[in-house]
């Protein structure tokens, strides 16, 4: 009899969790409190239902080839970066293609998720739901929580002295939809994440003036690289990841420093963001330091400057993730800090509960959550193992104490390296690409895997969940990238330009390969030299082996 799995939430991670359950022969039931799937990607004109939704002008920050389900590429005519409507359409195509919608119960809220009395033996959960005022109870063999990290707006008003004296309008970015109502107003946007920058840029076209306050700043990077290709595809590569892992920190952000002098824009510090320099150049957005105090109509900043006649303050201060259906102590242990590999709570005798999507990555969240779901479903089936709860709790408690004592830094809010995290989870599944083996069996594919974009298809090349179309998807990803831009025929580029393009694309990989070969050759030569000198001819000078100066 197939194990029954409760999936909470039908957003992009919920849909992948349903599919992964089906792939492993499990029986999923998904509970979605709204009347449609897609989570925050299902746009709504208002926020009356209390759910977080995308604002109307939102465009994805990760290009399509780097942010797709690993066995379901986008159609080639889809743009590389898309608005919320096109992205939701992709989710719909995915759900319909794999027949996922019939497993979703809409307008159903999960009230509680508690351990069954015999949990130590069975690992089962008692799930209480409510649909249109009627409650139901069911027992499940496992639970996948896919509610994401954008549930409750974080609005720390108590951290802003004088905020209660302010007579203007106060909003959280969750309430923002369109810029029309801000026509002619002086608006302060507090916080410079992706959302803060997007809202400031959009409001600059309608508001009288926009002020953008930040404590830290941001790296400003374009969606396109110097050659016009999607930036994600050019930078998220295995060879580049290897280099950045060993480079000193002062070199790691060199590419961003070369793109823009961040200091003169008042932006520089270590976060990532989309482009807004043009609005700053035009004076429509003014960068400000962190907020010190409020008056009835003015804002005082940490550097002593004052901006008067502020009509609206929009806080883009993020969200609090929460699990209201859990009881303590489970609720407190479902945090980024305590979750094993950001998926499994550490205190459960049976690993039958997985938190999917509670991660921040330098790449695609969609790709990350899909791989988490693949791993979790195999753990549920007993095909993959995790350490015992006693060990996980001990490690978590020790780490917590070290952080409190200041011995180590709390990195739970930092973005995880995309390739490193994906490889780590794929290793647990047995789906991590074996690049040395690929170079032997399929050199062309291996070259693209190591030197080309680290797209999600790579995690379908081998092991459990292998997809026969993965190789072709990797080798044709550039075709799908270029296709939507080929909307008119232009004369063939002259040969020098073509040569320059090849140098840009292949120059860095060739240089890296040369350096690796040179380094390995020198190591091998030294090893042979040492062996011969120390073991074969310990008392002789080997005149036929070149000596280092």
TrEMBL record:
Keyword Transcription regulation (UniProt): no
Family: Belongs to the FMO family.
Keyword Thylakoid belongs to the record: no
PANTHER family (UniProt xref): DIMETHYLANILINE MONOOXYGENASE
Gene3D superfamilies found in the cross-reference section: FAD/NAD(P)-binding domain
One annotated GO biological process: energy homeostasis
Class of enzymatic activity (EC top level): oxidoreductase
Predominant place of localization: endoplasmic reticulum
Catalysed transformations (reactions): N,N-dimethylaniline + NADPH + O2 + H(+) = N,N-dimethylaniline N-oxide + NADP(+) + H2O
Protein's cellular compartments: Endoplasmic reticulum membrane; Microsome membrane
Coiled coil: none
Stored SUPFAM superfamilies: FAD/NAD(P)-binding domain
Superkingdom to which the source organism belongs: Eukaryota
InterPro entries: FAD/NAD-bd_sf, Flavin_mOase, Flavin_mOase-like, Flavin_mOase_4, FMO-like
Pfam (any one): FMO-like
Membrane association type: Single-pass membrane protein
Function recorded in the entry: This protein is involved in the oxidative metabolism of a variety of xenobiotics such as drugs and pesticides.
Full protein name: Flavin-containing monooxygenase
GO molecular function, one term: flavin adenine dinucleotide binding
GO CC term, one of those recorded: endoplasmic reticulum membrane
């Amino acid at each position: 009899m197939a194990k029954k799995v409760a999936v909470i939430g039908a957003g992009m991670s919920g849909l992948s969790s349903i599919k992964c359950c089906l792939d492993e022969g499990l029986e999923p039931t998904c509970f979605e409190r709204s009347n449609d799937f897609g989570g925050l990607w299902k746009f709504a004109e208002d926020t009356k239902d209390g759910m977080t939704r995308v604002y109307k002008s939102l465009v994805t920050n990760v290009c399509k080839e780097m942010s797709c389900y690993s066995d379901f590429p986008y159609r080639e005519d889809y743009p590389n970066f898309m608005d919320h409507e096109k992205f939701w359409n992709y989710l719909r195509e995915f759900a319909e293609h794999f027949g996922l919608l019939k497993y979703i119960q809409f307008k159903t809220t999960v009230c509680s998720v508690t351990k069954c009395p015999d949990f130590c033996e069975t690992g089962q959960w008692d799930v209480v739901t409510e649909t249109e005022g009627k409650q139901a109870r069911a027992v499940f063999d496992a639970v996948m929580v896919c509610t994401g990290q954008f549930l409750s707006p974080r609005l720390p008003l108590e951290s802003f002295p004088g905020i209660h004296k302010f007579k203007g309008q106060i909003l959280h970015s969750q309430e923002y939809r369109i810029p029309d109502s801000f026509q002619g107003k002086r608006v302060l946007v507090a916080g410079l994440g992706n959302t803060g920058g997007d809202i400031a840029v959009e409001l600059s076209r309608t508001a009288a003036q926009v002020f953008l306050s930040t404590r830290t700043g941001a790296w400003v990077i374009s969606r396109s690289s110097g050659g016009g290709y999607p930036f994600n595809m050019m930078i998220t590569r295995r060879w580049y990841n290897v280099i950045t892992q060993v480079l000193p920190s002062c070199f790691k952000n060199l590419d961003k420093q070369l793109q823009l002098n961040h200091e003169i824009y008042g932006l520089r510090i270590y976060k990532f963001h989309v482009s807004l320099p043009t609005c700053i150049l035009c004076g429509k957005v003014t960068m400000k330091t962190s907020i010190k105090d409020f008056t009835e109509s003015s804002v005082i900043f940490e550097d002593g400057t004052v901006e008067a006649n502020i009509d609206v303050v929009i806080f883009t201060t993020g969200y609090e993730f929460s699990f209201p259906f859990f009881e303590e102590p489970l609720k407190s242990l479902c945090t980024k800090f305590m979750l094993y590999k950001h998926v499994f709570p550490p205190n459960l005798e049976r690993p039958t509960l997985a938190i999917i999507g509670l991660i921040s990555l330098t790449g695609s969240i969609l790709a990350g959550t899909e791989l988490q779901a693949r791993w979790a479903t195999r753990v549920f089936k007993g095909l993959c193992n995790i350490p015992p709860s006693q060990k996980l709790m001990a490690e978590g408690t020790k780490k917590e104490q070290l952080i409190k004592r200041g011995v180590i830094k709390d990195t739970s809010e930092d973005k995880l390296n995309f390739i490193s995290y994906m490889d780590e989870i794929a290793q647990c599944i047995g789906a991590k690409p074996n690049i040395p083996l690929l170079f032997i069996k399929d050199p062309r594919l291996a070259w693209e895997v190591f030197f080309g974009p680290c797209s999600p298809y790579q995690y379908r090349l081998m092991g459990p969940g292998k997809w026969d179309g993965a190789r072709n998807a990797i080798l044709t990803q550039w075709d799908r990238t270029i296709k939507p831009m080929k909307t008119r025929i232009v004369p063939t580029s002259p040969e020098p330009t073509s040569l320059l393009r090849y140098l840009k694309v292949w120059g860095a990989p060739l240089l890296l390969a040369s350096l690796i070969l040179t380094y390995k050759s020198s190591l091998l030569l030294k090893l042979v030299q040492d062996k011969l000198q120390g073991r074969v001819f310990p008392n002789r000078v080997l005149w036929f082996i070149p000596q280092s100066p």
